Amino acid sequence: MSFERIREKLNILADAAKYDVSCSSSGSKRANKNGGLGNSSGMGICHSYTEDGRCISLLKVLLTNYCIFDCAYCVTRKSNDIKRAAFKIQEVVDLTISFYRRNYIEGLFLSSGIFKSPDYTMERLVAVARQLRLKENFNGYIHLKSIPGASDELMYEAGLYADRLSVNIEIPTISGLQLLAPDKRHEDFTKPMLKVKNEIVRHRAEKKVIRSTPTYAPAGQSTQMIVGATGESDKDIMYAATHYYSEYRMKRVYYSGYVPVAEDSRLPSIGSQVPMLRENRLYQTDWLLRFYGFDVRELLNKQHPNLDMEVDPKLGWALRNLHHFPVDINTADKRLLARVPGIGMQSVHRILKARQYRQLSWEHLKKIGIALNRAQYFIVCNSRHWQRKDLEPETLKGLIIKNSQGKFRQHYSSQLRLFN
Amino acid sequence: METAKILIYDGSFNGFLTTVFKAFEERLQIADIQSNAICQNGLFSETETVFTQMDKAKRVWNGIQAKSNVAIKNIYFSYLSGQRGIELILYRYIRKLFAKMPTSTSDFSDSLVLKISQLAKSVGREKHRMEAFVRFQLTQDGIYFANIEPDFDVLPLISKHFRSRYADQEWIIYDVKRKYGLYYNLKSVEIISLDLQEVYGNSIRKNDTFSGEEYAYQDLWNDYFKSTHIKSRINRKLHTQHVPKRYWKYLSEKKQAV
Ligand code: SF4
């Protein structure tokens, strides 16, 4: 194997793959079979972090960055003047195994530009996974990209080897897709998604009856949407996400702030800022939907089509719904506790446990780790001291912002000055 | 009244459990429990050396485990923190567990409970870090070798993870701070101590202990690491929060940075 040649390919093909933000290696439990190599522990390990602070747990590469399509938002698009390369199947297998044995990674995330046809490409991705599983007895994590337009047969085989499959929807609205990726149809994305969902459902059901049923994509499927490329609202994005969670049983939807990669009149120009704060707010909303019992319509609707950038979505909701507060920490049920700004799910559990032993006061709440700078205005506890609870939403918001040091403060410091 | 005693043990976890057994059985007043490596005599207390007895240690372990699985894990983990005076803190904690009105391991408004659970948490965090940050280098003899220098004595905690993951390769993980290591010989894990000529971190200088290919793979990994950054998103503060600088010297992708 010529290391120089591999090195060149790796540089090109890892660089092109980095815009896919999903890096999760969790959700799959795969034991090490027959004294082979590797396992997936269910939790997933971050072996390092990029300099922008994202987890590195998988070797994330494209099989090739040749592509017959020309999607405007993508670095790999046909019309872009960049260096192209393609790995051989064996080269990807060797790299994965050698990195894995040195404890650099949890496994492989393989995606690809589309060369020749969707099926021709998908076939090669499946071949890499097959070789890793069957020839190398590799039990680490494998995430394969489902190529839009790939056949059901290939999607079926892919799921037998991969832990996770994903199709990136990229553009949340159909009109946006027509504008930016005219060669692609919406069904090209949803068809493989539907096949994977149906297979997952079928395999789970059969497994209950016949234990030897093979596992199929045990970590489920995920998708990604680009944020800020087409002028869509936060409501458009989160309603689409909710649709994918419920219709296709997505494990995760990822949101990726658009990084300008092309001068194109249809897109934000090169050098425009990546909407990182917005991306962060969307993830927070996603969490509220999945773990905090919120309905998407409570957070985003006709009156509020966009999230408030100054405060997190839970605080935003609370400020619009002050009539639910204050909540009594010592008696409120779990659902309501989870809705208090500044109280995370972990704190909710701690409160529920700790209050079995005594009435909780401010001191206890501080020890438990609640963000009192926000929570104090929305709760009462075992104490005679409280904050005034009759403030106007705008005043309260100003007060809370003044007392908090958000990660993204710099991004909205200009707006903040309005309050000071 | 009886004077309080200082119990001296051999510095092993089982030794510590034996002293707990003795203290309970003889209803001793305990001034302190100290490892023989660092014992200091108290001016007004008697000392007594306790010899490790596996059966007694086992009884204490089982007794705690019967009370609570969380407690036994927290006790073992926080013991491995090696923090000064941890033995006495743990002894008090265990007494609380066995008291007439036992405290719960989840009553975080009790400061002793909180302290133990926090300590256990930091040790747990170090365990995870080591599972993530071990970087094996392939030696000429075909053994995957790694040096570590963890804040706490976590080798006993990570052994199982590496054994089940790397079942088909020989490996050594060596703690240079505590001067012992684990060697997996394709069948089982042994405890070893080595006479290391030098600490094999991630130095740029090549060393002929390792196979030639080893450095090629490290280069590939470094390149890969570099290519993962998205320039317009760089956030160094977040980066070092996740990968604290004290670990860098063992991470091959941090070669240039060190
Ligand atoms: S088909 Fe995929 S790789 Fe090709 S240009 Fe479109 S998004 Fe990029």
Characterization of this structure:
The complex is a heterodimer of chains A (420) and B (258). Chain A has 420 residues and is α/β, with parallel strands linked by helices. Chain A folds into two domains: 3-299, Aldolase class I (TIM Barrel, Alpha-Beta Barrel); 313-412, no CATH class. Chain A has 16 helices and twelve strands. Chain A has helices at residues 3-17, 89-101, 118-135, 152-161, 174-180, 186-209, 234-247, 276-291, 296-299, 313-320, 334-337, 345-354, 362-368, 372-375, 393-402, 409-416; strands at residues 29-30, 40-41, 48-49, 55-56, 58-62, 107-111, 141-145, 164-166, 221-227, 252-257, 327-328, 379-380. The longest helix of chain A has 24 residues, at 186-209. Chain B is α/β, with parallel strands linked by helices and 258 residues long. Chain B folds into two domains: 5-125, no CATH class; 134-254, no CATH class. Chain B has helices spanning 13-25, 54-67, 69-79, 86-98, 111-133, 155-165, 212-227, 236-242; strands at 5-9, 30-35, 46-49, 137-138, 144-148, 171-175, 180-184, 189-192. Chain B has a five-stranded mixed sheet with strand order 4-5-6-7-8, with helices on one face. In chain B, a hairpin with a 4-residue loop joins strand 7 and strand 8 (189-192). The longest helix of chain B is centred in the middle third of the chain and has 23 residues, at 111-133. Chain B is elongated. In chain B, 33% of the residues are buried. Classes of the chains: A alpha/beta (420), B alpha/beta (258). At the A-B interface, helix 1, strand 3, strand 4, helix 2 and helix 12 of A face helix 5, strand 4, helix 6, helix 7 and helix 8 of B. Iron/sulfur cluster is lined by residues 67, 69, 71, 74, 76-77, 113-114 of chain A.
* Major sheet strand order of chain A: 5-6-7-8-9-10
In DSSP terms (H or I, runs of 4 or more residues), the helix count of chain A works out at 16
Fraction of residues in β-strands of chain A: 5-15%
The major pleated sheet of chain B works out as:
5 strands, mixed
Order of helices and strands of chain B: EHEEHHHHEEHEEEHH
Q: In DSSP terms, counting alpha (H) and pi (I) runs of 4 or more, how many helices of chain B?
A: 8
The structural domain count of chain A equals: 2
Sequence stretches where pLDDT stays below 50 over 5 or more residues of chain A: 407-420
Unreliable runs of chain B: none
Task: Determine the fraction of residues in helical runs of chain A and give it as a percent range.
Answer: 40-55%
- Which hetero compounds are present in the coordinates? iron/sulfur cluster
The largest β sheet of chain A comes out as: 6 strands, parallel
Overall geometric form of chain A = globular
Average pLDDT reading of chain B:
85
Derived structural class of chain A: alpha/beta
